[in-house]
Amino acid sequence: MLTPLESQCNRxxxxxxxxxxxxxxxxxxxxxxxxQALLHDMQNDESIKHLVNCPEGFGQSTFYEANSSxxxxxxxxxxDRLAKKVSKYLRISHAxxxxxxxxxxxxxDASLSMTWADYKSSTNKAKIHLxxxxxxxxxxxxxxxxGKGSERPFVGHILEPGQTGIVDRGYQxxxxxxxxxxxxxxFVARLxxxxxxxxxxxxxxxxxxxxxxxxxxxxxxxxxKMRHPVYLVGFRVGKKKFWxxxxxxxxxxxxxxxxxxxRWEIEKLFSWWKRHLKVYHLISRNRxxxxxxxxxxxxxxxxxxxxxxxxxxxxxxxILRLRQxxxxxxxxxxxxxxxxxxxxxxxxxLLLFYFDAIF
Length: 359
Known about the structure:
Shape: elongated
Oligomer: single chain
């Protein structure tokens, strides 16, 4: 059961969390770029009201008030439970390399009236901090801060003991590296080019690979030296050199380089998510509403992952499948939502399936 959504006054809630989450998922699925367009369609199309199970409809003030003040706790619970359910369907890609989680941040443009989204004197931005399961290619955890929010502290929140976080050089912090090791959390982290280290032991590697350096080292200078030794790999991609460190002693140099290369999968998610689900066309300008919408966008993405896997055996959603699905939605809008047919609004059927298991 989800945490009950309680009314803040004497009147019962008529626009429930189920209505709320379905409206937001329909917003992302239908490629809307404004709440006004969504509300216009919902107020004038009975079939859409039927899809979101809200035959009486609702007013604009009700919609905006709900999204700016309630539902985040429930949306976080749905996202977490849905991610765990979807992960059970998907094959693990790199089981021999362990539980890999890419962690990165992404900026969201904000209006000047969004004073909480502090970034620069003339610009406001918010920042999301995302954990991405590289073995199953699905998002796991999300945090939202102002644009200037530091990314490093969120690694500890996103990673679970036993997992390996893959991070870029912006996350480099030797004290935090030690803390993660103390907590049983592993890392594969790119280092800045001016990083200092002392070699403990040089290690063997394949001279015919892109790797040119592998050693066990003490990372840092005299003032910022780590308490734990780590393993350092140098490798080339084209003419560019990369220096990557890890605390994992079970990996070869080639495996460490490969694991870091997987980090780009989270960049692909950000790009696809922004471009095709319109998650950065904001409905609400307060922190609560933005987080709610971002979570709904991730839930939509997870449902698309499951849809593409179950219907086509594809591990990741594609714009082709999304366009086919949108065409089916428009053509089949008059059908009953509970009829199980591939051309019906599959996302809502899947959502209802998970609601049955969650509520």
